[in-house]
Amino acid sequence: MELPIYVPGLPARKMRTILFTFGLITLVFLLFSDVESWLSTLFCSQPLILSVDVRAHNLRTRSVPKRHLFPIKLGSTISPNSKVLLLKSSSTSKDSSTIRAALQAQRISFISLAPDRFQLLPSFLSSAPSAGPVNLIIFEQFLLWTKLPPEYKAAIDNYCQKFGVGVIGFLLDEDLLIRQSESFMKLSTYPLLLRRLHSAPSGFYLAAESPVLNISRGGQYDPATLSPHSLFPQRVSVKCRSNYSRQLATTQLIAQRFSNDLPDYDSVLRRQRRSCDYEKPPACCLATLVPSPGFTEYFQTVAFTKLSPIDSALSPHDDLHSVSRHSCAFADLPQQQNYNPNEQYQSLVIEDVGGIDGIKRVLFAYGASSHWSVHLLLMDAVRYLLSSVPRKEPLKALEFDIGYNRWVHVDIDDIFVANPDSQLYPSDVKALLAVQREWRKMIPGFTFSLGFSGGHYGHGSAIGRRGDEELLSHARYFKWFCHTWSHSQPHLLSESDLLDQLMKNKKFATVHNLPIQEGYAVAPHHSGVYPVLPSLFKAWKEVWRINVTTTEGYPRLFPAWNRRGFAYDGIQVIPRQTCGVYTQTLRLKDYSGGPHRLQEMALGGEVFQTLLYTPVSFFMTHFGNYGQDRLATYVLSGAFRFLLAWTHLQLRTGSPEFLTQQHLAFHRRTEAPTSASAGLPLMSNPCADRRHAEIWPPSNPCDPDLLPSAIIGGPQKTGTTALLTFMAAHPNLVANRIRSQGTFEEPQFFSNNHIYAKGVAWYFDQFPRTPEELARLNKSFGERQLIRFEKSATYFDSFLAPDRVLALLSSRAKLIFLLKDPLQRAYSWYQHQRSHREEAALHFTFAEVLRASGPEQAASLVRQQRLASGGDAGTNNSSSALAARLLALNRRCLQPGTYAPFIDQWLLRFPPHQILLLDADQLVSAPAVLMDRVQEFLNVESYVNYSALFQFNERKRFFCLSGGPYPAAGRLLHWDQESGLWCLSRNKGRSYPPLMPTEDDKRIFQRPMQDLYQLILQRQFWRPRNSTSVLDIIPPWLQRWIRPVGS
């Protein structure tokens, strides 16, 4: 609209009014940012504070007299590799999942058994009389122990007494266990009572004297009333869930089981009408543990609560009224002003010190999912019971001891990247500085780390621009790290564009004099970190000299305790933690799940548990989380204060490089570049996880059908190349590409660190995938099924390969292993090394190689060889090197041929019915029979009659293929003009001098072959349909190795 300066005929007064209004609007527009800034400072400076009310108490619990402290005398020792045994009350439950997560977070190995497998307990616990397989037993529902059949219960008790094994138990849902008409339940003959409370008790107390408490800070309490609402707020009504009917039926079945176990059982399953809202806590909600009369001195309280006046009142009509009046705690100074002698305290968590039957126990009066304290107290109870008995050898379960320091680093991502709702005002910047000063009281030296994208600077609203300017004016008080210039995701950029983005951001940092966090960067949305994008790591090193980064997505986002780090191309990747606030988490009232959900995460929930279980936590927050309601400050401040109030843990911080070293101190075996895996990540299919697929380059394939579904895994010198060649001749079987250099017909992706580092995209490229390429290989496609497979004989005895194969191909992959007489296999490897001019194989006979079983034996053989050749027998560098090569040759000859230990490693990841064991001798004697088994095992769509294809070549002494050509076999087959057949290449099927083994030579493999024989008998490996006995898959040469009974 045009505003005229003068309009003929317009009155002067009206003209002045128009001009005045126009000027006023212009002035307000020019000054608006200042007014808005002033208003933001006035009204937005008060942060939300999460209340943490934890106090010290002066109550003392009753101590156990020394005469009842049972001295545990071990009848035998526990295996250092022993595990925790978790006995579940059902096949699946939330409580058992909580216990499992707590054990896994502490890196403690465990075995879980559901009730339908309890019959295995007697044999399992007595299977290793000299070294116990279990170091701790946990009952998800302790009532199970009291109701076990006598032989099962005796097996557990005898085992615990013999090996000094402790027990942890939870008593779930007092409403289901105690009849409505009663207040107590006796735990069979065990002298402990479970008491139902008729009104909610007050306060959660940790005893000051309990020896169980280690990390937990004894002598602290929360005075709030205990109820489900205070334990874990915001419980969504089960009736609001889509699977409520199924859950109700399951619950009724569980209740029916208890009705069979408990006489006069009174079901209290109620079907109240409630709206699909949040459940309100019932009137009666908790129970306590009270020792039976006369047994008080055998129990030590760990945690307790104060009974309500109703429950504290004397009930003369109750035959257990003396128990009702029992109090496990009393005031240290009874003469103090507020002391009330009528107050009663009873145990929520109690320790049986072992004086009753020689078994230490820690028992909870509530379920594992009922209270935040379970994670804290279970951590202490597990460590206490594992370490309370001296062992001849330390338990591996105790190796992962993370101590009392928790190292904390907090990133603020996406600096300057904001919409009008998530931008920071000047007052927010001042508040951020105030929070940093406040946190330094809890975390000495703490400094926020700010991730910036310089291309977004000054692009917000007027007030947002003022906030950006305010932040840069205080830049010296923070540490800064690089995202990308425009916040672009690296997986969508070319290598040149990615370098340009990093260079622009570096120039921005130089212009504005930002104090850069040396060697540290984070990619927007963690793009390019995992799944790995090699160009990102290369660009980071070239522009910023990065050596540390973080990601939340390896191996996947949830569960949080399972996040891991890895090393790639000289950069260490540290797992990143979340704190419940994300890019759009701005206002508490809008939080998904409601304000109580975020409070729960800080006060005992996910954020608290992250700090509890994780030695080093790199927390991810975002620019907008420090504006509006400043929710990042809200949740982290609450979690820090809650942790310090309830534990002896200390919060610390340091530079990313220093924190990386702290992290690797606990993960050096798996994540450090010096580890056997070179710290490389376990690479999974990027499209199997939605979050990974979103940051996977669109040009890269990830269709699982393009990956192999079968693997010929070896071992070496058993005929794997011949098997690959014969399978490649099948029209429905697509082998990996056969190259003319490098590892030739073997990708060796899962066993070779250098090749594995090339990434998933490289592995996809090892297999033909276009119709044109498949047609050139004479492969059927379209409606017919194609089965891709690869062959790498190095996989069999690689301890890296099983996990890597599982991660990428899943447990549905089929495995083919060829087994050959181990002495013949060793001899073939020895001759193979001679043909490749291996020094040790040229200097020593096969018999001498077999005798070089250790460093001393190898050195002795080298000295003898030097003396025999007229040389100096003294030790020098060349002799030491030759001895090392001789020892290595011995191990490569012998170890793969032991078979059973390596097959066991695969069986830990893959079911036995997906493993095909083949007799390698059949490749020479009856290849058509062997190929029939392979076709049946792979369930090929088109059956090929190999009997019609195979013809024996007298000159090569091997079967060749008629027909052809077979382009898929590549250079592995060559045309033999003389016979008119397609035969294996000239370097296959060599003739060696016959092997003449001695009895000593045979003795080397006697025990390994017995182990292999037993393994095949015990595990249900795949067998053909016409098989009538497991003996059908045992090779004849293996049967000859097994000594007759009585020999």
Automatic annotation (TrEMBL):
GO terms for cellular component: Golgi membrane. Its EC number is 2.8.2.8. Its main location: Golgi. It holds the Pfam family HSNSD_N. Keywords: Disulfide bond, Glycoprotein, Golgi apparatus, Hydrolase, Membrane, Multifunctional enzyme, Signal-anchor, Transferase, Transmembrane, Transmembrane helix. The active site is at residue 717. It is an enzyme of class 2 (transferase). Residues 405-608 form the Heparan sulphate-N-deacetylase deacetylase domain. Residues 710-961 form the Sulfotransferase domain. Pathway: Glycan metabolism; heparan sulfate biosynthesis; Glycan metabolism; heparin biosynthesis. Disulfide bonds join 960-983. One of its GO terms (biological process) is heparan sulfate proteoglycan biosynthetic process. It is a single-pass type II membrane protein. PANTHER family: BIFUNCTIONAL HEPARAN SULFATE N-DEACETYLASE_N-SULFOTRANSFERASE, HEPARAN SULFATE SULFOTRANSFERASE. Belongs to the sulfotransferase 1 family. NDST subfamily. This is [heparan sulfate]-glucosamine N-sulfotransferase. The lineage of its organism: Eukaryota, Metazoa, Spiralia, Lophotrochozoa, Platyhelminthes. The gene is NDST3.
